[in-house]
Write a structure and sequence with these properties.
elongated; single chain; DNA Polymerase III, Chain A, domain 2; 367 residues; alpha+beta; eight-stranded antiparallel beta sheet
Length: 367
């Protein structure tokens, strides 16, 4: 293989693709990236047996071929090369020669035959969505994906497309986030995408990307974002019937300024550490929200003004769960729906119904 390629293009591609590379893998080749040079394109892939990232960049190819090189070392070398044009050449011993200006490197590569094939992908259905909308939908829900492997189905989000309404639903047993948008697609489908895959989609979507094509297979999914393709396994299993968990009516509805409420909860959270989680006690009464927190290191109290319609409610929450719900709603004001002190809190924007967050309360000690 012998090629010339622009350093900026190569560095950007390698940086993104390397995010799918295993840092410690049973198969040594998986700690590398696969580089293929054919035609006028350089194809670069990273894969950790769960998620693969693949892209093509322009290159002048004098001799075709393919090689696997250490992702970490190759990325560092390319990033620090002095000139914009990079020459990469390999020989029969799998030695890779990298030249840019007066800088020269020789690194040991691996035969591409040692690199596992990315999943064979056959599309069963697919649809297109605006890139910025998808980015916002994932960002506003992925925080509620579970990190507990005891129930693998909840380590991903349910992607549901029905009657031109696209929803993403994430649940971890303590909170739930639902984000929906109307899109132009005639297919009806649902599947569960790993949280890790969604995080990579968030990182790759750029300001210049207009649309993302989501291609769904029997066991895998592909996100086509500009010149990048993310291929991931889908999570198999039965997802919760989330509609049945959302109360159909509320005994108490509170309208609160989102920023004021976030700041007040944040002040209570100062008494909680990573290991210690005392509930933030909230009392909704007489057009006020009274907040307090008592832990082994002290006490805190605060009050903010907010219209309260309905029954008085005293309820407790994990401060992190409540804060993450409020910070991801992207609305100046929220409506908080309550059904007593033991039922989940529902948080919605005052305007529209594109976002719903559910937070399960913590049991409060008497007094």
């Amino acid at each position: 293989m012998k090629i010339n390629v622009l350093r900026t293009d190569l560095a950007n591609a390698v940086s993104v693709v390397s995010r799918a590379v295993s840092s410690k893998a049973a198969i040594p080749a998986l700690e590398g990236i696969l580089i293929k040079a054919y035609g006028s394109k350089l194809n670069i892939s990273g894969y950790d047996l769960e998620i693969g990232i693949n892209t093509n960049i322009d290159a002048t190819i004098s001799q075709q071929g393919e090689i696997v090189v250490s992702a970490k070392l190759f990325s560092e070398i390319v990033r620090k090369l002095p000139e914009e044009v990079v020459c990469i050449e390999t020989d029969d011993r799998m030695i890779t020669y990298i030249t840019s200006g007066h800088a020269e490197y020789q690194i040991v590569g691996m035969n591409s035959a040692e690199y596992p094939d990315l999943p064979a992908f056959e599309e069963t259905e697919g649809f297109e969505i605006n890139a910025e909308i998808l980015k916002e939908m994932i960002r506003q829900t992925v925080y509620a994906v579970s990190d507990n492997d005891s129930k693998p189905i909840y380590t991903g989000s349910l992607f549901e497309l029905d009657n031109k309404v696209f929803k993403i639903i994430a649940i971890d047993g303590y909170r739930m986030a639902i984000r929906q948008e109307n899109i132009e697609s005639d297919i009806n489908t649902s599947f569960v995408v790993p949280g890790k895959t969604q995080q990579e989609v968030l990182k790759i979507i750029g300001a210049e990307d207009e649309n993302v094509y989501i291609s769904v297979g029997t066991r895998n999914i592909m996100f086509k974002i500009g010149e990048y393709s993310i291929i991931s396994r889908l999570i198999e299993g039965t997802f919760l019937d989330y509609n049945s968990t959302i109360p159909k009516s509320s005994k108490t509805v509170v309208t609160a300024n989102t920023r004021l409420l976030i700041n007040a909860v944040d002040r209570m959270a100062l008494l909680n550490g990573d290991k210690l989680q005392s509930p933030v006690r909230c009392i909704f009464v007489s057009n006020e929200i009274h907040l307090s927190c008592t832990s082994t290191i002290g006490k805190a109290n605060d009050v903010i003004q907010a219209p309260v319609n309905g029954d008085e409610v005293e309820i407790g929450f994990n401060n992190r769960y409540l804060l993450e719900a409020l910070r991801n709603i992207d609305a100046d004001e929220v409506n908080i729906h309550l059904n007593g002190g033991l039922s989940p809190m529902i948080i919605k924007p005052v305007q529209g119904d594109s976002f719903i967050s559910l937070v399960v309360p913590m049991r409060l000690a008497n007094g």
